[in-house]
Amino acid sequence: MPWRNTSDPYLIWISEIMLQQTRVDQALPYYERFTKRYPDAASLASSGLDEVLRLWEGLGYYSRARNMHKAAKQIVDEHDGSFPTDYQDVISLRGVGPYTAAAVMSIAFNYPAPVVDGNVMRVISRLYHIEDDIRLQSTRDRIEILAADLLDRARPGTFNQAVMELGATICTPRSPACHDCPLQNSCQAYHRNRTGDIPYKSPAKKRPHHHIAVGVIRDANNRMLISRRPENAMLGGLWEFPGGKQEPGESLRETVKRELNEELGVRVMVEKKPFEVIRHAYSHFTITLHAFFAELDGLSENPEARNGEPVKWVAPGELVRFAFPKANRKITEKLVSYRAK
Q1: Partners of 296 in beta bridges
Q2: 263 and 176 share a domain?
Q3: So which residues are the signal peptide here (predicted)?
Q4: Around 56, how many Cα atoms within 13 Å sit in the side-chain half-sphere?
Q5: Are residues 55 and 137 in the same domain?
Q6: Which pLDDT tens digits describe the chain residue by residue (341 residues)?
Q7: What phi and psi, each to the nearest 5 degrees, are found at residue 234?
Q8: 3-state secondary structure (DSSP) of residue 301
Q9: Are residues 143 and 217 in the same domain?
């Protein structure tokens, strides 16, 4: 992993942000593309958010990219473009919490702070036979105290990386390779044959499901209307086809008409059936996205977003230039394939 072969705090920071909620194999190509385009904070800060989000597209949890962009501007404005070396300055960066600050500071500057991610929590809970629910803050607090006690203060960066790697490669959630583990003799869960039960994580709440209907408005030149989501909203800064959640007792076509009127102040004619139906899962809910072709009714000539965000008429071939949420991107791919035919 390239971020394990550098002491550059900027590159370590990029990797740690990308690895939040993301597997290593998924993050790696994004890291390589991202750091090639933005090798330092100044290049990231000077880029437009649209370009940053386009490079990030598909990695999910887009607030990470927005916060990184803002943090890069902080580094340029407050630290002359050099990544800060003080813990309090690092944790003051947008989107940086105790975990990320500890990871960057310990790896880049040998700062004695323990890093506690999911892998570390698993290693320590098995090592000490902690049976309590790791969803509870009290359990997390206990593990952090134990991690701080174990920390090699002479080599905190190496220690933190070693424990994270141990959890990722040997002390895995299922079928851990205990026979290869250097902590086998000390591991209480192993000696009690409890590695399959520890750590304990209470069942997650059932995720709600929503039906979303969007309208692909086309004009006489086969251009399509897209709108940008507010930065402070979920998937903020990304472009989408306007629409929204179906309300009780409402048909999907009625949803499109209502949402486009509420969002853009237009009235539309909607085709009877969707041309694409997509199922997609987010962290806290799932959706079925129904995409309908639509046309302005002739009285609505200049759609404008009522939230003040920009809207654009774009040709099918231009859709690739804009960053879309994953479900919307599948719609753009369908539209481009229609054009190819």
Answers
A1: 268
A2: no
A3: none
A4: 29
A5: no
A6: 778 888 899 999 999 999 888 888 889 999 999 999 999 999 999 999 999 999 999 888 889 999 999 999 999 999 999 999 999 999 999 999 999 999 999 999 999 999 998 999 999 999 999 999 999 999 999 999 999 999 999 999 999 999 999 998 999 999 999 999 999 999 999 999 999 999 999 998 888 999 999 999 988 888 999 999 998 888 889 999 999 999 999 999 999 999 999 999 899 999 999 999 999 998 889 999 999 999 988 755 678 888 889 999 999 889 988 999 989 999 998 888 765 44
A7: -60, 140
A8: coil
A9: no
Contact 101, 86 (CB under 8 A): no
Exposure letters 152-162 (e unless 16+ CB within 10 A, then b): eeeebbebbbe
Residue 188 CB-density burial (10 A; 0-12 exposed, 13-18 middle, 19+ buried)? middle
Same domain, 124 and 134: yes
Q: Do 257 and 332 have their domain in common? A: yes
> What range defines the domain where residue 96 resides?
1-111
The CATH number of whichever domain residue 247 belongs to comes to 3.90.79.10
Q: Could you tell me if 133 and 202 are in contact, meaning their C-beta atoms sit under 8 angstroms apart?
A: yes
Query: The CATH number of the domain where 129 resides is what?
Result: 1.10.1670.10
State the total domains in the chain.
3
Select from 174, 203, 232 the last residue of a domain: 203
What six digits make up the tokens of 283? 């962290």
Which residues participate in catalysis according to the annotation? 16
Of 238, 167, 189, nearest to 19 (Cα)? 167
Q: Do 273 and 301 have their domain in common?
A: yes
Cα–Cα nearest to 247, from 257, 232, 233, 235: 257
Q: Which pair of tokens denotes residue 308?
A: 């003040």
Residue at which a domain ends, from 169, 203, 237: 203
**Within the chain, where are the H helices?**
9-18, 24-37, 41-46, 49-56, 63-79, 87-91, 98-109, 118-127, 137-150, 156-169, 188-191, 252-264, 326-340
Do residue 100 and residue 151 come from a single domain? Answer: no
Question: Using the 8-state DSSP alphabet, how is residue 205 labeled?
Answer: P
Q: Are residues 125 and 239 in the same domain?
A: no
